[in-house]
Amino acid sequence: MAPISRALEDPAILTANSETQLQKLILDPILQTQTHLPKRLVIVIDALDECDDNIVVNIVGLLATTLEKYDPSIRIRLRFLVTSRPEEPLVEFFSGQHIPSFDMSTVNPENDICIFLEDELQKLANSTPYEMKEKDIRLLAKISGGVFVAARIAVDFVAFGKSPDSRLQKLHNASHISGLDVVYRLVLDTIAQESFAWDILQPIAIIVLSFTPLSRLALTDLLHIKIERLDNLLYALRAVIHVREGDAIYPIHASLRDFLTDPDRCTNPHVFVDPTHHHGMISRACFDCMTSLLQKPDLRNICRDRKVLPDDLTYACQYWTRHLAESNVDQSLVDRLHDFASTRLLYWIEGLSLVGDLDLGISGLGIVIIVLTVGPHL
After folding, report:
1. Domain assignment of residue 266, yes or no
2. CATH value at residue 251
3. Apex 11 CA angle, 9 and 13, nearest 5
4. Does 210 reside within a domain?
5. Which of 63, 222, 230, 240 could form a disulfide with 285 if both were Cys (CB 3.0 to 4.6 A apart)?
6. What is the C-alpha to C-alpha distance for residues 101 and 87, in angstroms, rounded to an integer?
7. Which residues are CB-neighbours of 256 under 8 A, at least 6 positions away?
8. Is 137 domain-assigned?
9. Does one domain contain both 98 and 116?
10. What range defines the domain where residue 69 resides?
11. Do 8 and 97 fall within a single domain?
């Protein structure tokens, strides 16, 4: 749609407030093209629960209020279909707004899941010696527990193994229970067993705790590991972690983070992510990165030649404050913060300016002040 393309040409739209984005990216384009659109239009907002809680309430509140006061010349009957897991803040907000809702847990998706699994296993049979069996479809459908993402992970777990039949046997051994946790546990425990020679926890932790997806290069530079080592892990984890276009690394679903950070659900110490501990680890990596790369005399030349700072330095400059806020701030972090504030603070501000994120410096310093103020041990 041309109006949306024109709106995206303005780089400020990406950092504009939600109300401006709603107007410029949705409502204005509809107003400009309504003669070519159907009289009834449904806009789908999928997986709203994957946004931060305050952003979620803000978005839904805008939909409930902005549409009422927007240009009355819009003659299209506009509806928004919002999908989400039943997170408490969302349930409370929608209940208070008296917005119609539909509980999808009452729908039995088993037939659709079986059709999906049959298609995926047929593709596997066409490309490998594996022979598809009806019992395999039933097994995967049963263990997925009616959850599509669990079915997706389970069938990928089978397809990506050296022997599909041996992977199916692992699933069969666990078929007395079902659901997403079972599938996550099988995949991650298998990878932990196969990767026992080295620590896989730090890369997994930074992937699920990062505030924006990291590139492969940024991840290896922050953790000081070889790219070949990371690629081997990502290859093993490809049922639950994807490397998308542009080299950004994403968990397959927000539920992976929920699983890995819950000690009652993830009981394998080789893959359990302790949020406060690992946010501290990432904070240290960010400080070390900025200490190493900031204040170099060629910082401006690097930015001018490459258009952006190195990926790891960009991420460290943007998000070290948020990782620090989620950490258990111990003496080693206090020492790094003191050194950074004494010798690198102005260079950090310069780095943010070079990548166009100077506003993060103001909010970031506010976060640090709060962390230092409420820390009883400081």
Report:
1. no
2. 1.10.10
3. 95
4. yes
5. 222
6. 14
7. 184, 208, 240, 241
8. yes
9. no
10. 2-105
11. yes
- The answer to whether residue 193 sits within a structural domain is no
316 touches 222 (CB < 8 A): yes
- Reported for 30-35, long-range contacts at CB under 8 A and 24+ positions apart, including other chains, are 30/74, 30/76, 30/78, 31/71, 31/73, 31/74, 32/3, 33/1, 33/3, 34/74, 34/75, 34/76
Residue positions counted in the chain: 378
45-99 residue pLDDT tens: 887 777 766 666 677 677 766 656 655 666 667 778 888 877 777 777 777 777 7
The set of long-range contacts for 171-175, using a CB threshold of 8 Å and a minimum separation of 24, is 171/139, 171/140, 171/143, 172/139, 174/143, 175/139, 175/142, 175/143
**Residue 126, both tokens:** 């066409």
pLDDT surpasses 50 at 197: no
- One-letter amino acid at 336 equals R
At residue 220, the 3 state secondary structure works out as helix
Note whether 169 and 209 are same-domain residues.
Answer: no
Residue in the block written with tokens 């999808």: 104
Tokens of 117: 């699994």
**Residue 280 and residue 371 in contact, taking contact as beta carbons nearer than 8 Å:** no
Separation of first and last alpha carbons in the chain: 54
Sorted by sequence, the CB contacts under 8 Å of residue 234 that are 6+ apart come out as 216, 241, 243, 249
319: nearest Cα among 290, 344, 292, 299: 290
> Tens digit of pLDDT for each residue in 1-30?
577 777 777 767 766 777 788 778 877 887
Q: Which pLDDT score is estimated for 272?
A: 95
- C-beta of residue 48 within 8 angstroms of C-beta of residue 88: no
CA 119/CA 280 separation, integer angstroms: 44
Q: Report the SS3 class of residue 81.
A: strand
Global pTM reads 0.78
